[in-house]
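Marked as duplicate of an earlier ticket. Keeping the data here for the record.
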Amino acid sequence: MIINRQRTTQRQVKALTIVGQSNQIKRINSTNYKVKSQSSDFWYDVTRVPQESKWNCSCPDHIFRNLDCKHIQAVLISKELRNKIVTNTDVKEIETESELICKCGSMDIVKHGIRHNKSGNIQRFRCKTCNHKWSDNLGFANAKVNSKVITVALDLYFKGVSLRKVAEHLKFFYGISISNVAVLGWIRKFGEVVTPFVDSLVPKEMSGVYHVDEMAVHVRKEKMLEKGHYQWLWNMMDNTTRFWISSKVSQRREIEDARAVFQDAKRKSLMPLAVVHDGLPAYRQAFYKEYFTMQNPKVRNIRSVSVRHDGLNQKVERLNGIFRDRERVMHGMDSAESAQKTIDAFRIHYNFIREHGSIKKTPAEQAGIKLDLRQNKIENLIRLASKFVFE
């Protein structure tokens, strides 16, 4: 079952990549499409069975496995996006003008005209206290597109589409010419704005069994003594809720680096019942510095070094694998600072936006954090975080 779910996810990611490219899907009519092969110049026929909702494709993946291949999923995504653009109902409009707050802290805000551009109309606002003016672009500095387009770009990126493909998607479907660097800037800004807010929300319904593990990530402009242009990413997550508690980037794998992860987790969550880790000596020393106590209840230190051990770190290793898939599409990150901001943004999406396949909820919901994010979770989370800064 795990393998099938992983294959389905990979097909969805590949489907999004197809949709994000230009001239990969040709619409013959409402029930017949042609989708270009990603490995050759061949075009596959994707057709809907009359009077049914089932779709067929002429590719080997669909013929031999009888599953919705990446070509079928690409057509379905394309149809959905086409309908959303035509009806202009892709994002639920939320009235939040009454909650607008200026950077000076004033709530005496008035509308100040509308900017018209290719991405749609952007509402402008003015603060009557300090006369500061800004656009409704979720506070993304110098963003010349509206908030809905920004959230579409963020959603595609977090679903595995590369930065360049996201930029191509915006140009193809919205007629907006934007660089991949600008998209990366939105992702970093998302992490900067939302991280302080979500880190202030303490999950109170976790199992208390925390898994921690480290992995090497490619950072082009940094040089690590052990592995060249790589840094270490330390991840800690809860066992049952899958809540990703901490993500820290460091140059080394020493005791102080492991302690920084534990200290970060202590600020963001309740005291655990047990900490599960692999055989890295730094974990043991860091555990005794941060979690060891002679008083009850004592935190258990569980060392897992093989598949035969009861405390196997499968869940956090699976999390590492999910991020590895994302990193592979990115071909690495630029600097340690950029890597930390990007990973923070990915952690936020994992906890608060993405529904986990096994628990059928977001990890934050499973951990007892109830936020009414409604339809466009990314946009509403940014708005909540922006309001939090001034409270």
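See parent ticket for discussion. The CA atoms of residues 360 and 366 lie 9 Å apart.
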